[in-house]
Fold each of these.
Amino acid sequence: MKSNSTVLAVELEAKQIWKQFLEIIKSNVPALTYNTWFLPIKPVEANDSVLKIQVPNNFFIEWIDEHYNTLINRTISQVLGEDGKLIYIIVEEPEIINEDEPTLFDRPEPESPAKAKNSFETFLNPRYKFDNFIKGEGNQLARAASVAIAENPGETSFNPLFLYGGVGLGKTHLMQAIGNKIIESFPDKKVIYLSSEHFTVEFVDAIQNNTVNEFSNFYKSMDTLIIDDIQFLIGKEKTQDLFFHIFNTLHQAGKQIILSSDKPPKDLKGLNERLISRFQWGLTADIQPPDFETRIAILKNKGNSYGIEIQNEILEYIAMNITSNIRELEGCLIKLLASSSLNSKEIDLNLAKKTVKEISTDRRVSISIEYITQVVCKYLKVDENKVREKNRRKEVVLARQIAMYLSKKLTKSSLKTIGLHFGGRDHSTVIHAFNTIEHLFENDSFIKETLDTLTSKIELGAA
Ligand code: ADP
Ligand code: MG
């Protein structure tokens, strides 16, 4: 039995550790996300490098894991150290408490399926499967090609497979489904999934550690290489060069390459021409937003996966009102389920209307000025503090003006509020910045490209 004071100390420590977590998370996610999904979590106990937290229900875990897995893992390392672990407890369903079994937040253990067969981290999320990918007009070709590749990796003429389309339409899901299927059918094949940003980070690490050769050989040894959101290689010449060599080696050896982007290869301005031409060697398939019937099917399927049946009237309402992004469609459903279970309320049309409204009107509000500033500064390699100070260096002024411009475009904040976020500048400064950047956007292709990339990063939630 622990004494009261020990219990108190453990609780206190948990609170302090969780506070550090929240600070990191707060500066990395939109405010709405933070308030909805992270604030309701309660720290329970901290012991060594293990922190136990209490969440209202399973949806929280699923949602957070699906959207912020990388951030959470990074935060675990930062706050709890390399062996850190986060264990969750669900309040209402005590039978789910099982500290011995791996939780969604645990780092993959060596015995996890993907790792047992591959002696390296595949970064595949087993949740993405063909089974739970709904077929629709918008994704027909992309899906069919993906299935064909999963059955005969490297042996179809779809090499590389290049998937492109807007945010939240299923590119990552499909690519990961291919990877998961290949591992399932061909356990000896080496498959790895990375976003192009992750790939870049690993490359920079390799440069710093003098292990570029090992790095390059590792990727050249893959049977299937999956690189997501390749548009983020733009402007990264060295990474592009290395990727070019890896691509060639794999392609010549008949290994499968799968890529995705927000636009077709020919529109990837700023990417090396020789890469663009190679991307077009295989099959380029787009994914279009789902039609109404597909949206309903996706909602039904997702509801079923939670064992919940929702009235058609409600599904139709959601599907009518959220049309262009499947992630948002799912987000709405999950939010609906969460708020109904949190408040022990029936899911009815009113609750659905309220949730849809929140999702749609908060879409813009949920992007914070801080977040925009952070993404802009990171991308342009400018110190965030300088942007808020009275620094007149050319690159700082440009970063500041771009951040102001995007804050105006992507949030509902007033000019005054925006000015306040940039060291208390007044609204006329913000107007000036907006006009300057708008003019450049129309006349300077480099600025246009930069703004497009930044906008998609910000909307994707990727810093
Ligand atoms: P993208 O990579 O294109 O931005 P994702 O693959 O991340 O989009 O998809 C966003 C969310 O929507 C994911 O949770 C994914 O599982 C889901 N999703 C996308 N397309 C479908 C589909 N056709 N059927 C079922 N779920 C889908
Ligand atoms: Mg994606």
Amino acid sequence: MLRVYNSLTKQVEGFEPLAPGKVSMYVCGPTVYGLLHIGNGRTFMFWDIARRYFEHRGFTVTYVQNFTDIDDKIINRANEEGLSAAEVAEKYTRAYFEDMDAFGVRRATHYPKATEAVSGMIAHIEGLIAKGMAYAVDGDVYFRVKTFPAYGKLSGRTVEDNAAGASGRVDVDARKEDPTDFALWKAAKPGEPSWESPWGLGRPGWHIECSAMVREILGDTIDVHAGGKDLKFPHHENEIAQSEGLTEKPFVRYWMHTGFLNFETEKMSKSLGNVRTTRDVVSVYGAQAVRYFMLQTKYRSDLDFSDEAIRAAEKGLMSLREQLARLEAEATGSAEGEALAVQVREGFNAAMDNDLGTPEAVAHFYVMADELRRKRNEHDPRPAIAEMRHLADRVLGIDLSAPPEVQTIGLDDKTAQLLAILIDVRKEAKAQKNWALADIIRNRLAELDIRIVDQKDGTTTWEVVSKVPV
Ligand code: AMP
Ligand code: ZN
């Protein structure tokens, strides 16, 4: 049986959706004011894989991911770029789809936008006010946290912790009854996009967006709500308060969170400035290598981004593809290979059933490749190889088909000398941490089928490849 870790109970639990055979799933989507970094990419890739696995296990999944298309950061970016907030949101929503398509992330069932769901948010806020759980002051509306005693049940943060944090800040809003109260609706400021509401012109707060959209599209209680672990507090805690406060029903059956992608042990984040965009990373290493690198770590653990680790993952993936292609080409066994295919499937499902254990699922492929090799003189390995390729492709978005044959071709002397100059320039760029320049050199050469390889001993070699399908 499929079991998943629930951040709410802090336990691995049997997975039983509310309606048998159906999974409703909501993942907090991006604020569309810039390109995704590869930490965001990790989170969105993983929840797509979870969804694929639910489908593989026979569930019909409704997967909803929102776009936060109105927010301070979008307004600031609009002013910087000389665009309207709507134009900024549209530009980066388009970029989101380009990047996710290139990274192999499947499309969700629904992509609601905050700006198109404002009436539902207003209705939700009115409901909270009617119950005494929210109050309006000068065109703002706040959630009255003290009316929701379960506040903190997801993150373990108490109202008092929160108050201590809030009162330490200089900008505590004097209009709030209590420093822990959070905004549901913000009165319009001059020049900002705004909507009509019972409290005057204004715009919704961030947290209310998810509560209202979940309810509108999926209902009062959903099966899975996911995001990166930084969203547990305050975002998901506030969502629980808003939703359960209004409906008095459990909001989410399984809260699930991904660990961070770190850069030199620090969370990759725009505010720290230590980001590499998904676009850049996927174009430098290829989507397959990056996915494979990420899948080798448990989704709940933090993972360090490193050039070396991605290169190592790429090598591992190439080797697995080569092993399978060789087995397929050289096997002589003729006995029924169906039992081996069953072993592939059962081992893969066992790994994934255990809280979506992608590292074990991938490791199982290597174990099975050894097993096929051992038995290649008796058993036909082809059904097992077909099964591995099918599972890897369908669930993990990994291509295990035979690699193209690579031939190394020589270069004339002058070209080789020019190449040596470029490699020296790239080395200097890397020494100065000018990754962008180093990547341009690598990518432009790759376009000419010249592959630059950084060796472990610090030297850089090159090869000219011609891709000939096997
Ligand atoms: P944001 O646009 O900042 O709300 O982020 C979009 C999604 O990416 C959220 O689910 C975040 O939790 C997640 N996220 C942000 N930074 C990281 C990171 N360094 N590693 C993994 N996930 C992240
Ligand atoms: Zn959310």
